[in-house]
Amino acid sequence: MRYLDASNIEKIATGASLLGAGGGGAPYIGKMMALSAVAKYGPVKLLSLDEIDDEDVYMPAASMGAPMVLTEKFPKGDEFARAFNRLGNYLGTKIAGTFPMEAGGVNSMVPIVVAAQSGLPLVDCDGMGRAFPELQMTTFHLGGVAATPMVVTDEKGNLSIIETITDKWSELLARDQVVEMGASASVCLYPSTGQQMKANGVDGIITKCERLGEIVHQAHPDHDQQLAAIQALTHGYHLFDGKIIDISRDTRAGFDYGKMTIDGLNTFEQQSMVIEFQNENLVAYRDGKMVTCVPDLICLADMDSLVPCTSESIKYGKRIAVLGLPADQRWRTPAGIDTVGPRYFGYDFDYQPLEKINTEVQA
């Protein structure tokens, strides 16, 4: 058990933004919400999975919708606690704490806001180990934990409680409501016992985000050593360096869709890369050959500072480094690949682990 204050939040937001694989929301927005909550209510208690009771109930809270919209349609501030408290009342049970459902610049910060406002602890796990665009794309879903009952609410105070027969139906019905609420809303879902969290949660994700953020923020005279430290922590691959020369985006049905083209720099000069995304980066092609695809992570960072870049922040002329990180092993099972593999997103090829595609030596 330890406490998270402003210095921890800065690092967690940065690391979570990298693991968001382009999605999960803008880290500046998430960081400022969490910093404000901690400044007002005090530091947040962080518990490890082995410190929670099996019978207690915990719930994540998150932002749902198109990340691009969230850069202009800011939360009012009370939506997350409203969703959290309303679902707790609906369940009729005492809620022992909260946790993030995914890694991301906003969605790793929202539970910190809820924990600070409610005086409840935060648990060091999540349900993805990265970010994914749809509600059923969680390790809790793979383990048979239901997404519902769930709450959807907006900044105006509109609120609904959803119960569905499958987690995919949760995604479909909640997404329709989020679109009507302006393509961005707040949700609380996947109420889970401590036992379910221990069985299905991605353990230690908040601490991992903090360690990544510390590497990025630490002044380091050797850029290559800094990059190597990130690769060592994530078991990742350095896939590309380059400048974005074209980017297209389209916000529809509550998602940000798009594609970017990158011209190679440094050791990747005379090469090109294309990355396609749906909130999160889905597939990367280098010189027309697929080099990484979901569920593995395609992460973008500023080429010089290694500060992560999210899909809504990238623009023409931006110089970026592209990293490929292996997904949690649960995503590489047949059930995981059926849920988040390339064919689910409409690609006509099977998943291949990034280690098998890329032969570069890890740092």
Automatic annotation (TrEMBL):
Residues 166-354 form the S-Me-THD-like C-terminal domain. Gene3D superfamilies: CV3147-like, CV3147-like domain. Residues 8-163 form the S-Me-THD N-terminal domain. Pfam families: S-Me-THD_C (PF20906), S-Me-THD_N (PF06032). SUPFAM superfamilies: CV3147-like. This is DUF917 domain-containing protein. It comes from Lactiplantibacillus daoliensis.
